[in-house]
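Handout for the seminar on molecular recognition.
Each group receives one record of this type.
Step one: identify the two inputs.
Step two: read the structure output and locate the region that could contact aspartic acid.
Step three: write two sentences on what you found, then compare them with the reference statements printed after the record.
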Amino acid sequence: MVGLAIHGGAGGDGPWKGPTDLDPQRIACMHNVLATVGSMLEDGIDALEAVTIAVEMMENEPLFNAGIGSVIAADGSVTMDASIMRGSDAAAGSVVNVKKVRHPIRAAKLVLDNNWPVMLNGQGADDFAIRNGVEEVSQEWLITDLRQAQWKKWKAAKSRPGSTDEDDEAMLDHDTDGMGTVGAVAIDSKGVLAAATSTGGMTGKPNGRIGDTAIIGAGTWADNRVAVSCTGVGEAFIRTCAAHEVASRLRLGESLTEACENMLEMVAPLGGRGGVIAIDCNGHIEIPFQTMLMYRGFWKDGEIMTGIGPDLTSQ
Ligand code: ASP
């Protein structure tokens, strides 16, 4: 039994108004990821490589907030966070505020493979990744016109970048255009679970800000029971160790459905609007969210489902 779930970020308040002009491209990307990586899992690829490839494919899509097309920080630059974890041995890797690599998740996977340390930051992380073969790219290459327009809008509106999270004025990348952070969770044919998450963070984030996506236990978690990837206002997910909270709740006997819902209930009062994808050791998948939308989908037994608003449709 193998399985894969992915997300492309959550965002927005109120009822979903239906797909935007840009959404078919995002759905096509998710479909391609699920079909490609789903078959690879069936063919025996391991869960860690599966989630790495799934996230790399979404990092390549400029309409998601990861890799090319990442949102722009207050100082006008793109800085990206990514983390990855394997459940069977608690191996983990993370890169923080990288600026020069095409695939932050591959960089995080290399950190994991290297065994020590677990997290690398800034220039050191970029240097390590490039030295180990991750493609080097320029800031000009990473920044798209769409993100520049969003950043200008943010500057003009002087929106809060999410530095305080109770005021609920935090600006998620997807609040302006319904798109976001990417993540994947998988179980492979040996029953090993893995999770990966990658992001440009939040539009207008202050220089040096680190979100939940880089933090093992907050944005990403995997153990022998479950693999989890979160998206939303990162500060609230950090303050609740959100991804790990799902695992703790399972250990206490909650079902996967209850564990995910109850975690989101804990995060919400701290301003943590968002969502989560999780897969357990029985291949059961949960994808709840508390925002207007979440780009999401899963592959199971050859069936592909994707969705943006409340409903999932079979592809
Ligand atoms: N969690 C991400 C962050 O705070 C943002 C997102 O999921 O869209 O950096």
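Reference statements: The first strand starts at residue 3 and ends at 11. Residues 23-42 form the longest helix (20 residues).
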